[in-house]
Specification:
Chain lengths: 133, 133
DNA sequence: CTACAACTTCAAGTGAGCTTTAAGTCAAGG
DNA sequence: CCTTGACTTAAAGCTCACTTGAAGTTGTAG
């Protein structure tokens, strides 16, 4: 059963215009056509969620394209994939460290009982110390 | 000792043009002037690193402005700050979960000894299962 | 005095990532 | 056949976050 762009959009939560745009920049393969209209294999949904996920973690469209291109390469083992991972891993580790620092800052904010703003800033500094130290 | 924009730029790693831009959108307070030129309190450096950090974790300039505005409010306890934290915490927790999922995918890529791309995809699916489950 | 670097403003340009618009096509229902 | 609604395209427009350019000012050194 093949899906229209409207169905794919509804099921994936990604606007049809975005799906066409992704296709135009080569992030999605050109699907089959019926009467000029796109018809998608339901498999596309898995790929789209992967794209959404990868993008949200901070990859650009181009990087995402390379990443998925690497994954779909016919040449095993996927050297591109491995290289990209090696380049991106330190970055993602830093993102994780920073995100949890911010998490601590925010949690300090949530249970904030500070009488002055300076007290808040002191908490922020403590949370930040984890990063710089 | 007051710093010129060039010194602040050098010490913080943020281009002077960006500092002026941040000031123009209200993210940085207007500093003092000597002969028309900006002079910064060294304290600004702490604020700038905080901005850089907050931005990197995915806040927009406007959100960052609200966040820091909340921090510098004269009204204790900072209600804005607490509200922002409450709104942003779930988001950042999701970011953390997703980033570590991607980390697992990338690590699978790094130690990839797959003979076929399907094996790789299988690893990706395993890593993604953590998110959907 | 001149020369120079570092600053100043304001406006326009940039690139990523879409979204919107205009004009047209297709298949199904009445 | 006509209408309706979901699709099609190409091109223009938009937001964000800056960056660049042009033209002028300031302070210091020679």
């Amino acid at each position: 059963m093949a899906l229209t762009i409207g169905e794919v959009s509804r099921d994936s939560g990604v606007p049809a215009s975005t799906l066409r745009y992704w296709e135009s920049v080569g992030l999605l393969e050109q699907p089959g056509r019926v009467g000029g209209k796109r018809r998608y294999d339901p498999q596309i949904l898995r790929r789209i969620s992967l794209i959404v996920l990868i993008k949200r973690v901070g990859f650009t469209l181009t990087q995402t394209k390379v990443l998925l291109g690497g994954l779909s390469e016919r040449t095993p083992p996927p050297v591109i994939w491995r290289e990209l991972a090696r380049r991106k891993l330190p970055e993602i580790k830093r993102t994780l460290a920073e995100a949890s620092a911010i998490e601590q800052i925010l949690q300090a904010g949530v249970r904030c009982d500070c009488l002055t703003v300076d007290d808040c800033m002191r908490r922020v500094d403590v949370a930040l110390a984890h990063l710089t130290a």
